[in-house]
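Purpose: get a first structural picture of the assembly so the mutagenesis plan has something to point at.
Setup: two entries, given in the order below. No constraints added.
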Amino acid sequence: MELRRGCLILAVLAELRAEHYGYALRKALASRGMAIDENTLYPLLRRLETQGLLLSEWREEEKRNKRFYRLSPGGRLILDQLLQEWQNINSSLTRIVEGEAWMTES
Amino acid sequence: MDLLNRYLHAVGFWLPKPQQDDIIAELSEDLRSQIEDRAAALGHSLDDDGIAAILTERGHPMLVAGSYLPQRSLIGPALFPAYQFVLKLVILWILTPIFILMVGPATVLSSGNPFLGLAETAWTLLLAAVFSMGIITAIFSILERYPHESTFQWNPRRLPAVAPAQASQPPKIVSRFNAIVEVLAGLFASLLWIGLMWSPHTLRVNGIVIAPTPVWRSFFWPILLVTLASPAAGLFTLLRPRWMRTRACVALGAHAVVLILLGALSNMGPWVRVVAPGVSIAGVANANHWTNVSLSIGFAFAFIGTLVAAVGEARLLARLNPAQTPGPVTVRR
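Result (structure tokens, whole complex):
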């Protein structure tokens, strides 16, 4: 549960390097295998915006008002740090899991 | 779209005013996009059933609104262990013994009907527990919101000392709560016994008088000795938790005396006398007979219970290796 929550934040921040409105962001994430519940996504977007990691603006598109989100400059820095940390953790975990597999085989 | 508007209104009801319009506008846009997508996939516009299905998938309005609100808790995980400890201390260690040993007996003795007295005590205890819980919760929720700098300041040098052997040997668990109850119950029983023998009381229920017979007077000192043994054993546990063998010896001796007393008492009935004005002689004799039969059954149960407790103490004594004595003990909270 905690693992998924952390990964969702990374996925949302990474996807918002390009501007999206909520519904389009949800579809984009789902098409890449990271389906996210609406009741999780929108509160998460608001929280990230409050923390200064995202910027948003209401704009009219296809005759409807939509709220567009994009990564803020601060958010871009945090995303880089998070990705670096995630890669370190991933490498460590891979070594641990592979070591475990090696011990099981021998 | 009437259903959609009703849904949005229902969600808005649970949202804080400053964010209400913004959240509802975004939620509305998302739901409309979803409705359009599904209509496009089906090739026709959605009827009420189709829209209702989408809204049902989205969730109960209150839960949807709740997901936008910050996670809040009255008492957070940092203070919760302390909160739980204080609750347990006040309700289990302070209120309950006071009610069982002081308020309860006083209420029962002053009440005309012992059952009503018991019910009144239980109700008052419940009210006191709920009131205490409310006050403690309020204090901790204030501490949660306005934490003081010193709350989590600590010094490793001020942590309580641990007996050297305690770290290396498996602890023998003795409940501190049980020890406190043992002391209080023993003292109360001793005082009650002295009071009863000093000025013999009678129990009056609806005009029927139940009085102890003189047979009890010959057991005054042995029974007093047994009632005082209980607080002595409890005090050993509290003040000298490492004197496990002494404590077990005192408890075993007390159990042995109780067994002898119960054996002697059960052969010396009748133990109470029932007087019921206005009732026939046969009726009074019947009441006397059955009251004393009930007491003899009570003695039998007490004998079995004491025997079981004595066997438990004897086994504990056997497990305590003299080489380890005085053995370490952990007093469990």
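The beta strands of chain A are 20-21, 54-61, 64-71.
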